[in-house]
Amino acid sequence: xxxxxxxxxxxxxxxxxxxxxxxxxxxxxxxxxxxxxxxxxxxxxxxxxxxxxxxxxxxxxxxxxxxxxxxxxxxxxxxxxxxxxxxxxxxxxxxxxxxxxxxxxxxxxxxxxxxxxxxxxxxxxxxxxxxxxxxxxxxxxxxxxxxxxxxxxxxxxxxxxxxxxxxxxxxxxxxxxxxxxxxxxxxxxxxxxxxxxxxxxxxxxxxxxxxxxxxxxxxxxxxxxxxxxxxxxxxxxxxxxxxxxxxxxxxxxxxx
Length: 256
Fold this sequence. Notes:
- The chain is mainly α.
- Helices cover 45% and strands 10% of the residues.
């Protein structure tokens, strides 16, 4: 059996294959671009000439093989894009930035008195008050460590705290971007330093959802073509023989 390959085709036939696939099956344009003089043929006549070219089984087989390769690659790309859109829609923006309630300084201090992180923080605050009182003539009371040490701002508020009434302190929390889930990482679009602090930029989940809706509408079942979006487990098989390739091409283009 004669081996069919693109390199075995004539230069004109190779160009016909390339133009035909690039124009999504425009017989007339492929014929005009590859086989020379137009001879003033109408579009219908040029299309007929293109159809005649495809009667060559070798050319038809190469067209079919290359069409299936392009289709397979396109489906892979579509799945990747749709997968990213879906991940963005399902992602929770609160994983990146959120508002949370944390304990105040009095929540977990001994006897609900002011709690310091450690001895170093207490010493620094003590020195600050002494310096302010001496240099500026202030009469600020010296701090006391009676509430103890160990303050951690990420701890939940004490429900019976007399200072915050168990509500704690509200704060904006920005996550460590290196620990984001794949979906949240797609939502993250960088940070911007402003005069008021850091602004976290997020991609639009609504836009991703709109893109998915548009894609589903475009690929909805059509009564004429009967086309459906490929399932996740679908495998596109390359035609192995010349007859299989010719049949696949004719089925793909609805030609006989």
